[in-house]
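User: Last request for today: this protein with flavin-adenine dinucleotide, please.
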Amino acid sequence: MTQHVAIIGAGIGGLAAALALLRRGIDVDVYEQATDLKEVGAGIQTTPNGSRVLLELGLGDELQRHATFSKGKDTYLWNTGQKRPFMPLGEQSVDSYGAPYVTFHRADLHGMLLRAVLQAKPGAVHLGRQLDALSQDGHGVRMRFVDGTEATAPLMVGADGIHSRVRQILLGPDKPEFTGCMAWRGLIPAEAIQGAIDLVGGSMWLGPTAHIVTYPVRQGKLLNFIGMVDQDNWLIESWNAAGTTEECLADFAGWHPHVQLMVRNITIPYKWALMVRAPLERWTEGRITLLGDACHSTLPFLSQGANMALEDGLILARCLQAYGDDPGHALRNYESLRRPRTANITRSSAEQVRRVHNPELADPAGAQRYIEREWGQQQVEERYRWIYGYDARTVELESAA
Ligand SMILES: Cc1cc2nc3c(=O)[nH]c(=O)nc-3n(C[C@H](O)[C@H](O)[C@H](O)COP(=O)(O)OP(=O)(O)OC[C@H]3O[C@@H](n4cnc5c(N)ncnc54)[C@H](O)[C@@H]3O)c2cc1C
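Assistant: Here's the final one, the structure of the complex with flavin-adenine dinucleotide:
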């Protein structure tokens, strides 16, 4: 059986894979470019398919401690603020799917995965190790880092995120296409908006050329804000490119006063160009495979980036446990299980933009028709069931990849 796996990237997917492998008695070393893992990012949603993986990894108590359990989600019309429920959460999510729909500050989700990995293997995560080059032969993979150090392992997983160096080395340069849409992201302190804005539920504000998603994190102490806008003058895809409050306000001019209030109170509004990548036809070569955003980055419209990475980590570990005597087969098997689902999700997420930015929303009669047609609780439940119902713990592992 495979005894040792090297993972490039200590993000959500890399750490989930590390933990799933360690739990199965397979040794791991994780190489991360950051020199310290400080608090970065904003909100992240863990839908039942992702929470199920966290529970399987033994993180149920940590989830209870760090996650925020919303009561449900409502749509709001961009100009009138008219509200209507579209997704009950809380107990109903557990009843329907056997796992909760929760929200996290990314740093809290990341922190709980990191602590669990270090508890299972102290010293598993090597910081300041930015992968530069790699090579493989019939026995293993040799990795060279920017600091001049090297490491070897029988197998290697590239979990190095959206701008993956491993993907670049295996498959050549990336060709993302700009969607014509950018996102504002940020956190709002609860005390600045208390009384006016719902801090126990999630919201989706729908408009003709933009929409906003909000949800509480840190038990309602912060509200996460993502505002997606049709516009073509911002082309940088980055988690830490800051914009200004004035620019963000200009993008939501004419929207309801509660939207203006939220925007004015975002601590730092970050800008992110929404890029789309065609699903990869393959992402495994010999003893190397990819995982998470490195092989299936997605637009945020279905909130599945972290959830797919969590699913990947567990399925990869299950394949290596089941077919560890033939690691090449195990990796191909993992890829063949994950490719169709992740391609469906990334495609569906790209199609969702037409559902959330819709010209019918410009006038009140059109808006009413549109909300009833697209955002009734039953339509939403039918649209999302295949995503939330997926169970990475039990999905059948095919033996012929
Ligand atoms: C700093 C940061 C902040 C984020 N904030 C949010 C957020 O607020 N909301 C949200 O929904 N998503 C956020 N994400 C993205 C989200 O975590 C991912 O979309 C999703 O969880 C998939 O996880 P992943 O493990 O594939 O990628 P990521 O979680 O992005 O992890 C990739 C990891 O690989 C490391 N890495 C990259 N290149 C190399 C290299 N050459 N050598 C070694 N290590 C490397 C990165 O530093 C990172 O730690 C953020 C990602 C990052 C890196």
